[in-house]
Amino acid sequence: MAIVEGPNNRDLSNRFIEEVINGRKLSLIDETVAEDFVYIDSTIGTVKGRDSLKERLTRMFSSFPDLVWTVEQYISEGDTIVTHYSVTGTQDGEYRSIPAMHKKITVQGVSINKIIDGKLAETRMLRDDLGLMRQLGVIPE
């Protein structure tokens, strides 16, 4: 197992965010994500494998077709990179059984990513889902 530190981790994270998420190039997941990738989400639980990640992102893009991730800050040490991000988008499709509300949202979050052999191997996602639900009008302020 090779551990890549510093700028290479930021480069990989930037590529994933800009090309895969913001650019909607799911085909690049095979280049940037380990085959046995693990995604741990504070709300939905654990998802394993590249195909599961592709399915999850496809559903997210369907729910929020104009979704854009913006990196606010990176912290990198060893094989780990922490990303503070904001996400904006409009919920124009069903999201977690919530019908399209056509409301614009902005959500803050943190992802903790482990990079092994130059690929994303694990992501732990913590996001302001309460704020998201309030913005959608599902939970009162």
Level-2 CATH architecture: Roll
Please trace the helix and strand order, writing H or E for each element.
Answer: HHEEHEEEEH
The largest sheet has its strands arranged as 2-1-6-5-4-3
Summarize the biggest pleated sheet. Answer: 6 strands, mixed
Total tally of structural domains: 1
Strand share of the residues? 35-45%
- Regarding CATH, which class? Alpha Beta
Descriptive report:
With 141 residues, the protein is an alpha+beta fold. The protein has one domain (7-85, 108-127): Nuclear Transport Factor 2, Chain: A (Roll), CATH 3.10.450. The protein contains four helices and six strands. Strands 2-1-6-5-4-3 form a six-stranded mixed β-sheet, with helices on both faces. The longest helix is centred in the N-terminal third of the chain and has 16 residues, at 7-22. The N and C termini lie far apart (47 Å).
How would you briefly describe this protein structure?
The chain is built from four helices and six strands; from the N terminus they run H-H-E-E-H-E-E-E-E-H. It has 141 residues and is α+β, with helices and mostly antiparallel strands.
